Amino acid sequence: MAAVCCAGEWLVMSSSHHLIAVNIKESREPFVFDCTKAEQKPKEAETDKSDGGGSQEKGSDQILALGLSASGCYAALTDDNKRLILFRTQPSWQCISTRWVVRRCTSLVFSQAEDELFVADKSGDVYSFSLLEPQKPGELKLGHLSMLLGVTLSPDDKYIITADRDEKIRVSLCKSPYNIQAFCLGHGEFVSALCVPAGHPEWLLSGSGDSTVKLWHYESGRRLQSIDLQQHGFSKSSDTDTEKPLRFAVSRIISSPDGRHVAVQCERFPSIQLFAVEEGSDGRLTPTETLALPQNPWDMTFDTQGRLWVLLENKDTNVLLYTHKEERWQSESESPDLQRVSETLHTQWELFKASIGLESRFHHLYKVNFDNMASYLQKKKERLLQQNQQGGKKRAVRQSNGAAKKSKTENESGDVSQKRSTES
Predict the structure, then answer these.
(1) Position 385 confidence tier, pLDDT thresholds 50, 70, 90
(2) Which end of the chain, N or C, is less surrounded by CB atoms within 10 Å?
(3) DSSP string, 185-248
(4) DSSP string spanning 5-37?
(5) Residue 292: is it exposed, middle or buried by C-beta count within 10 angstroms (0-12/13-18/19+)?
(6) What's the predicted TM-score (pTM) here?
């Protein structure tokens, strides 16, 4: 699956085992990094199981998570070979370290101070990696009992917020993660997206496989709002069996830099839902527009100017750009920045082919419901029918035996009467 993020003047994308960075403002050669050519793990480290006994199976070099620091000075990725690769983007792109994680990762986030990088993995653990000491191994910060799907930080780096497969959102103190501040509970399926919106450092937005977006006051765990996306255009899908209940996950929630807008993307839907953020301590999200796209988006991001970039699975129309003008979102098809990025992606399209048509990364996370009652009632019906049939057979046998005994008795009585008559 391809991904995109933006910070500073760089629009950074990943697809399969490649990272591609395009400068939005200047016509420069894109930076392309191939994970298959990255540093390999030393053999002595591969056989060392003192780090927790992670699996030693060979990965595919596919990028699993991608992130940029707030200033855009740092970028990082993790891949299927359990590498954590750190880049410096200024004055030019440079790989400054390759470290290894214990297990495959699902999400990463930079601290606002840009001194730490937090990485969440499939086993439920979060590790912290230093940016000031790029070769220093990671430090275990906290753990869940379930697979982690998202990690983010409060804007002041005070809290680390994690989301897992078992519908839990945990808010922990960053300096002492064993101290849990709160839980945000209420989703009915795995939590697939987290976002602390700009301008509202006390809020948390979460998306889930239950097709809802929820707004929280995360420090107290109090839910402020719940939005059912099936009521906002996400109700039909061309590749969904209409005979089955529609289930879809929120794949991305992002906030504009000024904190006035929130964009929500769902898997398998060629649209993006925009919300306006109401002001005030008890503010809410108000749906404003639904952007209809020519096909399903891979990912989306806001740039520093508040423009919305959407990455598509199409070589000819590979990226779209929207700007909020006159109280609505308008397509910027003639923007020089858009043309520059689109031409670069068209040239590098071979790197994106492996991400086209991939199945949802969430499909195996849904709860499996078994209709035991229907099976029980059917078996009960069959058992009662069988009992009735057996009871009918027994009654028929009893009736048959009774008739035979009666006939025998009558015959014996007749013989006795005849014998007495003869003797007289």
Answers:
(1) confident
(2) C
(3) ---SS-EEEEE--TT-TTEEEEEETTSEEEEEETTTTEEEEEEEGGGTTTT--TTS-TTS----
(4) EEETTEEEEEETTEEEEEESSS--PPEEEEGGG
(5) exposed
(6) 0.83
